Amino acid sequence: MCRKRRQIGSQLCWFIAFGHEPQLCIPQAEVTCIRFRGLKVTRGYQDRQDLRGTIPELIDQAVTFVRHNMRVGGYVWGIKRTDYYEYPLKAVREAVTNALVHRDYSKNGCVCVYILDDRIEFSSPGRIPPDITLQQIQRFEHRSRPRNHLLTHILRDMEYLEEAGTELKLMATEMVQNGLEKPTFQEFESELRTYFKGPGDKFMADVEKEDPIHQVDKKEATIAEILKNLSDHQRKIVEYTQQHGKITNLDYRQLFNTTRQVATKNLTTLARKEILEKRGSGKNTFYVIKTRVS
Fold it and tell me: By CB distance 3.0 to 4.6 Å, which of 52, 71, 192, 248 could disulfide with 86?
């Protein structure tokens, strides 16, 4: 009975996902983003935004806030510049999405994103479901137990969520690939917090050690090797993406005369294998060839 009370009703779910100014009726659906000075949460801060809008709008706004308040460096190889982000934006997006989708909307508190000099904290109101332990979450081995099932399905169809149960693993993978530690988690009386530990003084420390070999040649050689190990269907997807520079869900549907769900599943599979790289969000999502440098 208690679990049913903590779930969002279908009308409320559609309202916060697509309604006009949902915070007028559900004020706890806000997201508070703050960039604090130093290493502690204090009264002093450099930037703050109290975000309002639908769930997709909140996700996009929160990711934008983090991007504007993190360190971004650049290095020039010949005539090409490469940007380096302090935190992987894909992991940030997943953390914000999870905090909003799996929170307990019967609680008055809002989702919070706190940026400090050495970390980012994501706070989501609501306790961990009784059939999941904090240890399982910390080991990234729990199965999906969404508190708000309908909202989860809506966000997955809009491509704001990956496949069920993979969100935390994706965050961990993105952090490790960017030379950072895996996320950590803590449960307090009425909220779950996710912590991203930053690079600190190590930010861009190894950039000058990179090998400035011409990336196009490497990319072409890598794609040729990738194609050998793919099915005919997957090979057509990669070849189309290579020829046109990108592929969208609509491109896939027109190419193979299939449904949106099938297109999403197969494109996500190639992204999970790190052959394609997903960019953008929502209706602006597209995939490009992911360069692998051995």
Answer: 71
Task: State the alpha helices, DSSP H only, in the chain.
Answer: 2-6, 10-18, 55-69, 89-101, 134-138, 149-157, 167-177, 215-228, 232-244, 249-256, 260-272
Q: Where are the domains of the chain?
A: 2-202, 213-289
CA 88, CA 72: separation in Å to the nearest integer?
11
Give the amino acid at 211: D
DSSP-assigned states of every residue in 213-267: --HHHHHHHHHHHHHHTS-HHHHHHHHHHHHHS-B-HHHHHHHHT--HHHHHHHH
Specify whether the CB–CB gap between 55 and 101 falls below 8 A: yes
Structure tokens given for 70? 């993190």
Considering the entire predicted model, what is its pTM? 0.66
Q: Is 137 or 131 the better-scoring residue by pLDDT? A: 137
Residue carrying structure tokens 């137990």: 145
Nearest-angstrom CA–CA distance, 137 and 48: 29
Q: CATH assignment of 213-289, given 3.40.50.720, 3.10.180.10, 1.10.10.10, 1.10.1760.20? A: 1.10.10.10
Give the type of residue at 201: D
Write the pLDDT tens digit of every residue in 59-97: 999 999 999 999 998 887 666 678 889 999 999 999 999
Look at the chain and count its residues: 294
Beta bridge partners of 192: 124, 187
**Phi and psi angles of residue 60, each rounded to the nearest 5 degrees, phi first:** -60, -40
Residue 120 CB neighbour total at 10 angstroms: 23
Q: Which residues pair with 184 in a beta bridge?
A: 195
CATH 3.30.565.60 fits 2-202, yes or no: yes
The per-residue pLDDT for 141 is 73
d(CA 237, CA 247): 8
